[in-house]
Design goal:
Blueprint lengths: L9 H38 L6 H29 L4 H4 L10 H28 L15 H31 L4 H15 L6 H18 L2 H24 L2 H28 L1 H5 L9 H6 L4 H14 L4
């Protein structure tokens, strides 16, 4: 008696392809920082530069930027080619948006801010359980060259390459199986990709909000612009923390966060009022919730989960 193995569903094939790309990204992510660190160290030795000065950090950032770009663009290209798609189908750079940019920006930043407070509660719970998180942040650079390179490496490059990968390749790879499925799944993967327990929750929320507005705008430029602005606010916060007292810093951000969250709530009410915007998300999903969850259970999914756990454990 012969037994025939059931062929994987189209959903399973797509999700497995996405997870395979994410596994490549995790491996490159693990290698990129040590490679930049090694390269910066060798250059410092060659030219007699100190390892703890701004010169080392400047060299490290210059080396890390292209490595970071490859870490995301290579898996994105692999995923698109694996699915035999055209890059234009996945990476849409329309110059004009079909959604109000101010509305999209306010809602996304407000969602990130609100969920970041939930992340703080979650971190406090970990502390109570005896699971402390390791934090290490260099002081804000002083020289003009170092500031420019730091801005490029922390604001511009991540916004471009992460949006191309997650709101471009991953989101559109999952889109045939429903908008909500693609938005939520790509957002969760984006959160996991940060491999940092303190960032996973609000990064996932940001990923979902960005995915929603990229689909509404029909352009990756929307995601890139909002992502870059969010990174720029973090860049500004790093500078401000080194310039003012801790009390003044937290006083400023308590007001700033309250304003952002209020604007976000107003923006969400506007979106809910425009029922026509939400109707296209009421389509019947192409698969059941059980099938969607089961699509992530595979040897490739297990390998990616293990890699993500190992990378995340670095902060504990």
């Amino acid at each position: 008696m012969t037994h025939h193995l059931q062929a994987p569903s189209p959903l399973k094939k797509r999700v497995t392809a996405v997870l395979a790309a994410m596994l490549i990204e995790a491996a490159l992510f693990w290698l990129s920082a040590p490679a930049a660190d090694f390269g910066a160290g060798m250059i410092c030795i060659l030219f007699g530069l100190p390892f703890d000065g701004e010169a080392y950090r400047l060299i490290f950032d210059l080396l890390y930027m292209p490595l970071y770009a490859v870490t995301f663009l290579l898996p994105a290209s692999f995923l698109i080619m694996l699915l035999r798609g055209r890059f234009g189908e996945y990476l849409r750079f329309k110059p004009r948006f079909e959604v109000n940019p101010a509305l999209a920006t306010a809602v996304t930043l407000g969602v990130v801010t609100a969920v970041s407070y939930l992340s703080n509660l979650y971190i406090s719970l970990l502390d109570v359980l005896g699971i402390g998180l390791y934090y290490s942040e260099s002081p804000f650079p002083e020289s003009t060259a170092a500031i420019i390179v730091y801005f490029l490496s922390s604001v511009v490059v991540p916004a471009f390459v992460e949006e191309i990968t997650y709101r471009g390749a991953v989101l559109h790879a999952l889109l045939p199986f429903g908008r909500w499925f693609a938005i939520i799944a790509s957002g969760i993967l984006f959160g996991v990709m940060h491999y940092n327990p303190s960032q996973i929750l609000y990064a996932a929320a940001a990923g979902m909000a960005l995915a929603y507005f990229v689909l509404e705008a029909k352009s990756l430029w929307m995601g890139i612009a909002i992502h870059a602005l969010n990174n720029a606010l973090s860049f500004f916060g790093h500078w401000l923390y080194d310039c003012v007292s801790e009390e003044a810093y937290y006083r400023f951000y308590s007001v700033f966060d309250a304003v952002i969250v209020t604007l976000a709530l107003a923006g969400i009410l506007i979106i809910l009022h425009r029922r026509t915007v939400l109707r296209r998300y009421e389509e019947r999903p192409a698969a059941s919730l059980r099938e969607m969850a089961g699509a992530f259970i595979s040897p490739v999914g297990a390998a990616y989960a293990m890699a993500a756990l190992l990378l995340t454990a670095r902060w504990c």
